[in-house]
Amino acid sequence: MSEPTPRVSDTLAEVRTRNPLVHSITNLVAMDLGANVLLAVGASPVMAHAREEIDEIVSVVSALVVNIGTLDAGWVDSMEQAAAKAGEVGTPWVLDPVGVGATSYRNEVAARLTALQPAVIRGNGSEIVALAGAAKVGGTRGVDSAIESAEALDAARDLAQASQAVVAVTGSVDYVTDGTRVIAVANGVPEMAQVTAMGCALSGLVGACIGIGADTLRSTAHALAVYGVAGELAAQHAHGPGSLRMRMLDALTQLDSETLNEMASIDQ
Hints:
The protein is of the alpha/beta class. 50% of the residues lie in helices and 16% in strands. Pfam families: HK.
């Protein structure tokens, strides 16, 4: 008899039970929120970028997250070293190609990191299209997307096939693909885009969920659903982006299995 398909609550429960350690080399804007989101779901964050300790840290963590939002030559060296070490020791890692498409340097760095075989690539529509090398339709606006997630789905499939990574393209509806299968997640609220680093912190949650060793495609979709449901709950009592950020952390901490399974909108 085959095993039942895990529910989204099963993934969150596993994260809370196993407390995965997630190493993030992330941008300066996202460090605080990213660390707090991981703590809120029951994971443990480590934020380190010194090359002298990269190999040791990547060797013991459950997952690595690399975010190129605030690039610096020294940090790029650390990112590439961490990704290479992750491949060597079998640590799954997430690439968040923030703002790719905006500059040639950012494009070069994102391409080099993609070649180091991330388990998951998560970005908005513009970023996924740019990284996939697809025809430009609008381009990026800083870290904002000028392309809806549905418009980027073909590029996401192409990128997944070329990189052998699961690709998550986020927007009003999120799509997760391994190049063949596609899972759609329709959770979240538009107000989440008004809080800086909200997407970057989501990549950390993806790291926590794939770090527990479950199916990468499904675990990524579950991470998006958890985050989106928490955003919907937070928005019910928020009065603006400041209180939404605070209530988002509370919602992630307090989220129970029954509510999560009832509200999660996952189409696969």
